[in-house]
Input
Amino acid sequence: AQSVTQLGSHVSVSEGALVLLRCNYSSSVPPYLFWYVQYPNQGLQLLLKYTTGATLVKGINGFEAEFKKSETSFHLTKPSAHMSDAAEYFCAVSVNNNDMRFGAGTRLTVKP
Amino acid sequence: SAVISQKPSRDICQRGTSLTIQCQVDSQVTMMFWYRQQPGQSLTLIATANQGSEATYESGFVIDKFPISRPNLTFSTLTVSNMSPEDSSIYLCSTSRGPETQYFGPGTRLLVL
Output
């Protein structure tokens, strides 16, 4: 079965600094990969996804992620952090739509 | 994307009681999913609900504790039965719209005293 590991349960950056949230996956078949964001007291919002095609995917709010098969990674980046980016971020993997597995989550803090 | 609403948004319940959570989708969908997010943790799939058939439960979750209804293609309910403080969690429903992707409702925040 597929699984996801998010490195770092808590990441803290300064406003304007690079955001890098790490995600590695395990899957025996080509995976679909997702990043979701959860703001305080809200549900999950899809940031971006990789299914097929271009390995660099762009999402909402200036985030992007690159699928690297050789490294089994799907790290999330944003060039310049904003205070409003403070939230919990979840990486997820699916090999079919019925079976989506989530990572443990990374809490992003943005310091002024 | 899909527009998903949940009721109630939050509740405080006494142990031993039951709570039914409603999930409404803005258009017809085949599959709906129910997840639990315990405090400070990630999401765990409880069950998958297809219209017209019994829900499929994941390991560790049973129908007697979490009965699910799926009366039509836009609606589902999850009941948390005979609650204990360990059931305090966020319960989220989701559905798929287009290939591969799940969209989530805002969640129901449950506190059991």
Summary: Chain B has no helices and eleven strands.
